[in-house]
Design brief:
single chain, mainly alpha
């Protein structure tokens, strides 16, 4: 039977880890930045939902994946490894906090405009079932 992760168990595992970190950075940070810039708007709905700002909250996670990718490739000393560990913990905690509650001052302008229009529509009754 062939070994799953290479002859010594580490070669293919490192390659797989690098690919996963690259994929995580591209999907989370790339998708989040596209969503933040307004280039990708189809995901957003002006409705109260726990995952309302999930693509934006994924940006720190993608940055953490990018940090881990670089830290895996580059040989680091003890202090640098500790700094990387703190940065990864900060990115993970920030992702969780932003997912739970995304502050209004961090929202992009195009989302603020959609939220204002939806709030105005709810206040005046425009666009609701009675308008049909």
């Amino acid at each position: 039977m062939d070994p799953v992760f290479g002859a010594n168990g580490s070669g293919d595992a490192v390659g797989t880890w690098l690919l996963l970190m690259l994929l995580g950075a591209a999907v989370c940070a790339g998708g989040g930045l596209l969503a933040f810039s307004g280039r990708w708007r189809r995901w957003y709905r002006a409705a109260e939902s726990p995952i309302r700002y999930a693509p934006l909250a994924a940006i720190p996670f993608g940055i953490g994946c990018l940090i881990e990718l670089v830290a895996t490739i580059a040989p680091l000393g003890t202090v640098a490894r500790q700094a990387v560990a703190m940065a990864l913990f900060t990115c993970l905690a920030l992702t969780l906090l932003l997912f739970l509650s995304f502050p209004a001052w961090l929202r992009p302008g195009w989302i603020k405009e959609l939220d204002a229009a939806a709030t105005k529509g709810r206040a005046t009754g425009e666009g609701g079932p009675a308008a049909r």
